[in-house]
């Protein structure tokens, strides 16, 4: 299950990717059941007790994590002794980013490795309830589009792993 605070473009792109995945996926038999895999958690402090871990998506390795409460999120994972993985997305795709995920065949090698890294981390830490966080578009240009595409590919890969 994924959760997000719905406060930044990373949060919103998670929801958009998830609903696009459900809407466009012919293998999803029960859309209501699938939609329950994603929840909205508003920042009331309880999510730190509920989530198993946090995935922080950044635009680059030089992003200042003290911007947009990203540093706060990192500190809270440390305080509550929860696993936290930070990944940096510079460019997700080699080809045209306007194409739909199902039409895009060429992920750059770094993105494929990052998807595998996230999946390995989820499995290693036995994560069932994952908080996804990251910065706002105003401090991290392109983060919405890159996260939307990345999460779309991650969801597709997760589904492939579950059906095999």
Automatic annotation (TrEMBL):
Domain of life of the organism encoding this protein: Eukaryota
Annotated Gene3D superfamilies: 3.40.50.450
UniProt name for this protein: 35907_t:CDS:1
């Amino acid at each position: 299950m994924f959760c997000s605070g719905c406060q930044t473009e990373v949060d919103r792109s998670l929801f958009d990717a998830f609903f696009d995945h459900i809407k466009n996926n012919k293998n999803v038999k029960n859309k209501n059941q699938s939609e329950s895999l994603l929840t909205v958690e508003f920042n009331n402090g309880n999510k730190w007790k509920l989530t198993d871990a946090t995935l922080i998506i950044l635009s680059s390795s030089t992003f200042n994590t003290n911007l947009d409460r990203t540093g706060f999120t990192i500190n809270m994972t440390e305080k509550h002794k929860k696993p936290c993985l930070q990944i940096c997305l510079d460019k997700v795709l080699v080809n045209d980013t306007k194409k739909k995920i199902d039409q895009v065949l060429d992920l750059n090698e770094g993105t494929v490795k990052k998807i595998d890294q996230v999946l390995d981390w989820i499995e290693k830490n036995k994560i069932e309830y994952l908080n996804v966080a990251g910065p706002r578009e105003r401090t991290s240009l392109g983060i919405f589009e890159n996260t939307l595409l990345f999460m779309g590919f991650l969801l597709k890969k997760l589904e492939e792993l579950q059906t095999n």
